[in-house]
Amino acid sequence: MKNLNKKQLLSAIQEAHKAKLTLLKNINKIKKIIYIFKDCIESGGKIFFCGNGGSAADAQHLTAELLIRLRPSIKRKPYPAICLSLDSSTMTACGNDYSFNEIFSRPFEALANKNDILVAISTSGNSKNIIKVLKTAKKKKIK
What we know:
The chain is mostly helical. The protein folds into two domains: about 5-40; about 45-140, Glucose-6-phosphate isomerase like protein, domain 1 (Rossmann fold, 3-Layer(aba) Sandwich). Helices cover about 55% and strands about 10% of the residues. The chain has helices spanning about 5-25, 25-40, 55-65, 90-95, 105-110, 130-140, and strands at about 45-50, 80-85, 115-120. Helix 3 links the parallel strand 1 and strand 2. The model has no long low-confidence stretch (mean pLDDT about 95).
């Protein structure tokens, strides 16, 4: 592993600080999203997550937080969440029989309903399978 010099470390800290400032600037949008999730759960909806690579790991982590709990001190019912990048049998069957581009959209089309939410995580925004599942959500009028 390459050693970090002071300049690189400072840059990394400044980048993290900038990200937190962006969160503060978007506090009203974040609050709106929280209420969208709350309404989804209260209306019997589910929250779907998907992503590729590291974003798949993020999707799994967020799903686990909703199914289990965010903090040990909080006692609550599990929230309905599904990670589309978790089912290796479905993903590989779909990739083999159809296309890797459909590994999320195919199960999402089968499982998602009008009160549900899709959270698609992508660092590039260009993954064909993410774009396809987003189009499926739009077609089904799912947030």
